[in-house]
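Format is sequence with structure; example below:
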Amino acid sequence: MGATATSWYLGDGHGTRQLATVVVLVLAFAKVYLVGRYFMELREAPRALHLLFGGWTVVVCAILIAMFILTDN
């Protein structure tokens, strides 16, 4: 709930737009990771699958942040 409240607060015009967007993306992917780990039961999956999912969340988040920063004028 804290991550959602922080995302809402930053998305409502508090802080610089670029920093707010990056923080919201990081928080969103942290929530994706937690949902995958606890509700999709990846915590009990084979280690390779757990690492693959964690890597996917980091890589996709980094790509989206890089795309945003590089195209932001």
About this structure: The mean pLDDT is 86. Residues 38 and 63 are 24 Å apart (CA to CA). DSSP finds three helices and no strands in the chain. The chain has one domain: 2-71.
